[in-house]
Amino acid sequence: MSAPPNEFYSEERWQNWLDRITDEDLDPEDEDSARLLLNLQDDAAIAVAKVVSAHDEGEIDADTAMDEIEEIREIVLSEVEFDDEEKELLVDDVQTSLVCVFYAAEEYVANGAPDDAGIEQYVRAAADAEAEEDIDAALGYLVQAGTMIIEGEELDFSIAEELEYGLVSTWVNGLDSLQSAMSDPEVVEEEDEN
């Protein structure tokens, strides 16, 4: 049975991914492990992209879109527990990268995208804010960059190579998933579905 049209994401879907991670020997240096974590991240970003697209196309109103985004966020950002501490850290990294995606989608639904600066200026401003330890400002700048991605602007992700490893680089990684999701919102197939 297919999901009802208004179900963009479910706890069961998230749990299926977590079960796969539980069953796998995860090594972030291993291509298959990295792909599994990226698919987990992309799958959630695709769900967000579908909510925003449904709102843009008039299929759902702003309040419904906000509720849907919040529901996905609550599922994806709920605390996860594994017997393996490294798996917890890896999934936590995925969750952190998606924080910016959720906020960007909510900001887009509420206020649209800004037109006062280029997308890369926002990313650089976020990096500068992080360097000054102003994490809230850094997130705010990247949320604006995210709304621009939703509106169809493209961010050249080679900029990520210039970033110091930290929250901004992790959030930009999430925006990469959002950009992919907006351009090709195909569902990431869960392998080995029971």
From TrEMBL:
<protein>
    <recommendedName>
        <fullName>DUF2150 domain-containing protein</fullName>
    </recommendedName>
</protein>
<dbReference type="InterPro" id="IPR014518">
    <property type="entry name" value="UCP022079"/>
</dbReference>
<dbReference type="Pfam" id="PF09920">
    <property type="entry name" value="DUF2150"/>
</dbReference>
